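Subject: Protein entry, chain in single-letter code together with its fold tokens

Area: Proteins and the way their chains fold up in space.

Attached in line: The record itself begins immediately under this heading.
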Amino acid sequence: MLPPALAGVALTVGVAVAMTATDQARFCGGCHSMSEAALTHKHSVHAELACNECHAPHNLAAKIPFKAKAGTHDILATITSNVPDLIHPNGDTKEVTQANCVRCHQATISTVNMQIKEYCTDCHRHVPHTPKIPVAQRSAADA
């Protein structure tokens, strides 16, 4: 049996490795249902970010149960072939995504009338999951 201190270190390292691995587009895009999202992310202005920079809380105490719940939901949806054609954030995920938009884009958000729409994705619904569209052909919602 491992001494408690060594077991604690092993557990901490294991959790850190698992959290890092499951944050990456390669992991997220491994499921057929998310392959298009991973591909469009790869070609977006947010390509340098890990999926969970936007899709999970940044506070580790909140992130672990959030990812466990979301992961369980996604696995069950895949196993039961109950994956919607279009996947949109809702509930907790929408709140987390909004908080992360605000965290990174505070300077921009301070110049926008956020009273018109509650969430950034209400207008920017395809960020970053849309193929590159030439600037001349974009609508504001594709930005």
User: Anything to note?
Assistant: Helices lie at 4-21, 25-28, 35-42, 51-55, 60-79, 91-104, 106-109, 120-123. The mean pLDDT is 82. The two ends are 55 Å apart (CA to CA).
